[in-house]
Amino acid sequence: MASLDDLKKRIVSVKSTQKITKAMKMVAAAKLKRAQENAEKGRPYSEKMNNIILNLSSGISDKENSPKLLSGTGEDKVHLCIVLTSDRGLCGGFNTNIIKKAKVYFENIKKEGKVLKIITVGSKGYDQLKRVFNENIIEKISFKDSKNINYFDAEKVGKIIINSFEKKEFDVCTIFYNKFKNVITQIPQAQQIIPLKASEAEGTSSEDNYEFEPEEDEILSNLLPKNISTQIFKAMLENSASEQGSRMSAMDNATRNAGE
How far apart are CA 128 and CA 108, in angstroms? Predict the structure, then answer.
């Protein structure tokens, strides 16, 4: 049986932990507000970008010679998967949910006899995936030194993807991230960005009428690489809001448990 001194020490330790988790919850709440605003602002832009591309693609007469970023290689043998997770822990099931979604996809790719290549963005994703898919990971990226999510970081990832595609190193590219819904709910996503699928253009509609100058294929050649970075940036913004929401919820639960 624990002595009175042991119980007192235990109470002091729990109270100290409670103060830490409460402080972390407050920090996460402050960061969440800004991250949520950024994610919500980024959605219309990325959706409109997809909308314009879909309209442009419908006006191309020579489909066989359309930009490869749009039409793909015509093959489905090599899949490049970009898994976006956090560099920090203590955020509940945020990272686990993304990894779980990605693993199901990876296993299906392997069962079909296709080649799997993985790029991890965020150290937590790499730490979990290397245990099973280490031979498939071709690059690991971390932005833990960046204070805020920015387009330039997304553009770096986008350039890696495009350079690899131009070297014919893969046929299909899919990104994995969490879409922010609210503090409690973040929805794991698998979004194909190469070749662009109309079904992946969430929230878009090709019913708008546009007049383009110069020709559609010329505009697409310039717009498609930017769209890759834009979709990566949107995913990073969604992930940031999801991470802070999940951390806030996790620290709230920890604070409550410490008080019981």
Answer: 18
Pick the residue with more confidence: 75 or 199?
A: 75
Q: Any alpha helices (H) in the chain, and if so which ranges?
A: 4-58, 68-71, 94-111, 123-133, 151-166, 216-259
Is 137 in a helix, a strand, or coil?
strand
Residue predicted with more confidence, 144 or 80: 80
- pLDDT of amino acid 44: 95
Residue 15 predicted with pLDDT over 90: no
- Whether the CB-CB separation of 217 and 67 falls below 8 Å is answered with yes
Q: Cα(141)–Cα(118) distance, rounded to whole angstroms?
A: 11
All domains in the chain, ordered by first residue: 35-252 (3.40.1380.10)
Query: Do the bridges between strand 172-180 and strand 78-84 make them parallel or antiparallel, or are there none, so unpaired?
Result: parallel
Per-residue DSSP letter, 64 = G
- The stretches of 59-85 forming alpha helices (DSSP H) are 68-71
Q: How far apart are CA 11 and CA 13, in angstroms?
A: 5
Helix (H, G, I), strand (E, B) or coil at 75: coil
Q: What is the pLDDT of residues 110-155, one digit of tens each?
A: 999 999 999 999 999 999 999 999 999 999 999 987 778 999 999 9
Q: How far apart are CA 128 and CA 251, in angstroms?
A: 22
Enumerate the β-bridge partners of residue 115: 78
Distant-in-sequence, close-in-space partners of 33: CB < 8 Å, separation ≥ 6: none
Task: Provide the 3-class DSSP secondary structure of residue 185.
Answer: coil
Higher pLDDT, 191 or 255: 191
pTM of the model: 0.89
